[in-house]
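Q: Predict the assembly, please.
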Amino acid sequence: MSSSKYLIEPIVGWRLWHVRRHDDAYRLESFTWHHVSWPARTRFEAECSTHGQAAPVQDHECGIYAFRTRELAEDLLRRYTGVRQHYGRPYQELPPLRQGCPIAIGRVSLWGRILARENGFRAQYAYPYELFLIGGEDDLAHELRRLYAVDVWPS
Amino acid sequence: MDIGAPETEHEIEIAPLEEPVPVPAPAEQPVEEPVPA
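A: Predicted assembly structure:
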């Protein structure tokens, strides 16, 4: 059974992004949906191939995903890349990150219509709140900070 | 991303007073230099 709750403060979750170069600038890209680029200085809006802008829809898997905790995002990072990241202290557990393929772990603001589960959320709108860069240099952190106007911490 | 079992899902509606999207700070206006008499 679903119950609806109304709030005015955004929910802040945790998630991962790939950081890839698009033409002349780096962009955040969704971690599990490749080549879905997050726009800078404007909200990212969920869109579903079945439900369009009605996403997220119940009994479907559409929407913008985020975890409730950093630990859950770190666990996904470890499973995908073998990089263990614990509050800014990385160490290698499995094969290292490929050179030139930086990843960002960070907090993300979620708002609009949100479907909450035990470990995370599917949201209608999102924007990065704070990023921790893994496998990127200071210059890249600076560029992302300027582009998205959020705090970006190099690893 | 494994966010948990679908049967645990419940809906939340969030209408923030302001969208949490940062905008660049306005550029500072240059202070006019005093001109020596």
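The interface with chain B takes residues 2-11, 15, 31-32, 41-43, 58-59, 65-67, 76, 109-122, 125, 127, 129, 148-150 of chain A (CB under 8 Å). The two ends of chain A are 43 Å apart (CA to CA).
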